[in-house]
Amino acid sequence: MIKKTKFGVATALAVSLGASVAFADTVKIAFVDPLSGPFSPTGTNGYAEFQYAAEKLVNDQGGVLEGDMFEIVGFDNKMSPKESLIQVQVAIDQGIRYIAQGNSSGIAHAITDAVNKHNRRNPDDRVLFLNYAAVDPALTNDACNFWHFRFDANADIKMDALTDVMAKDEDLKKVYVIGQDYSFGKSVAAAAVRNLGEKRADVEIVGNELHPIGKVKDFTPYARKIVSSGADAVITGNWGADMVGLGKAIIDAGFDGPIYTYYAASNGITRTFGEQGTGHIYLVSEGAVNPPASDRTAAYVEGFEAKYPDHDITQPRIANTIEMLAKAINEAGTATDVVKVAQALEGMEHDSIWGGKLFMRPDDHQIIQNVDIQEHTSEGLQFYMDASEWGMKLVSEVEMAGMDSPTTCKMKRP
Questions:
Q1: C-alpha to C-alpha distance for 122 and 44, rounded to whole angstroms
Q2: Taking the C-alpha atoms of 399, 404, 405 and 408 in order, what is their torsion angle to the nearest 10 degrees?
Q3: Which of 111, 232, 279, 287 is a good FRET partner for 350, with 20 to 30 A between their CA atoms?
Q4: Partners of 397 in the beta sheet?
Q5: Quick one: signal sequence residues (predicted)?
Q6: Spatial CB neighbours of 122, under 8 Å, sequence gap ≥ 6
């Protein structure tokens, strides 16, 4: 539920998670992402995932330290960098020391810069930025800083894994690259061209274009160009409403090749593709639930679906973020001294609820984890998505992807 403060700033009512121990402190985490507008399905789904992770993985286990509970506080940034900075400041003014954001690398750049400046100017009121989904490689390269931690594989790491699979397709001759016109979309395009050139120099890039983010109402002209190009496959980093629009247009235009994506799951996307997406839609991600890694994984997904029937587990890294933050707080012995918490996160190894290891690389604060390639299907599923008969199933996995990937990060530590 969203309300207006007396200052006119849109904020969300804090949602208390789980039964609190009497007089226990609360560790608040600000969730700064779109809770209204065309990208709200993605934002509200992530909000639900954060709420559930905090409840089940922390609060129901007794909390952190001496019984302190996690609380997720939602702030609607309306997919605006300017509004995001306003909301981050509101959260800081409320005493919140942990900022979580993921939708749009452009917004992530604005937040990480603002957090870095704030912490320099306010050494007694520092905060950490928990980036759970913004994957522009620059965020853990030239734009890195001590206060930023990324819990998702960056665009380069994902493209490396994705093109490993594509390179094995002997029928692949022509590829069309299309994405949103901002830092992430550009990084996806550059990584696609670079990786295909290295692994399959015989493959021709027959289209490489960007479109305005969140502003295209009809993707039909783009879909027609894709079909007329003779492309055998499409690569896109589109997400949210732009993925739904592009996907529907491609289907309607009759494109019959594989579509390799970063975010073609749930939030209206799985249902839109439906039967036509079977065998054609591929997703590079982490934490596949078909098949689930363990009974604990299955129970977690079942519990989420029971509590949030209108949402899906679309970003398993959110659970990783919450578990690793709780672990760092316990190891640091404090939730308020974020320098100690950050030092505990650096180099942390953790067993993911989704299976596999997690390693927070200390050089650049880039998480290293298994990266999965999944396909859209209705066969062999334990868990479905989008209130539909379809879901995503694991077809290939790259263990600890990007472990040796280079970084230009030159981090200054406090």
A1: 31
A2: 150
A3: 111
A4: 372
A5: 1-24
A6: none
Rounded Cα gap, residues 345 and 330, in angstroms: 11
Phi/psi for 171 (5° steps) reads -85, -10
pLDDT of residue 266: 79
Opening angle at CA 358, ends 76 and 409, nearest 5: 75
H/E run at residue 228: helix 220-228
| Architecture label for domain 2-134+317-351 | 3-Layer(aba) Sandwich (3.40)
pLDDT of residue 24: 60
Q: pLDDT of 311-334, one tens digit each? A: 999 999 999 999 999 999 999 999
Counting every residue written for the chain, the total comes to: 414
The domain locations on the chain are 2-134+317-351, 156-289+371-401
Distance CA 114, CA 108 (A): 10
All residue ranges of the chain with pLDDT < 50 are: 1-23
Q: What is the distance between the alpha carbons of residues 267 and 272, in angstroms, rounded to a whole number?
A: 9
Within this chain, domains 2-134+317-351 and 156-289+371-401 share the same CATH topology: yes
Fold of 156-289+371-401: Rossmann fold (3.40.50)
Residue 396 φ then ψ, to 5°:
-160, 150
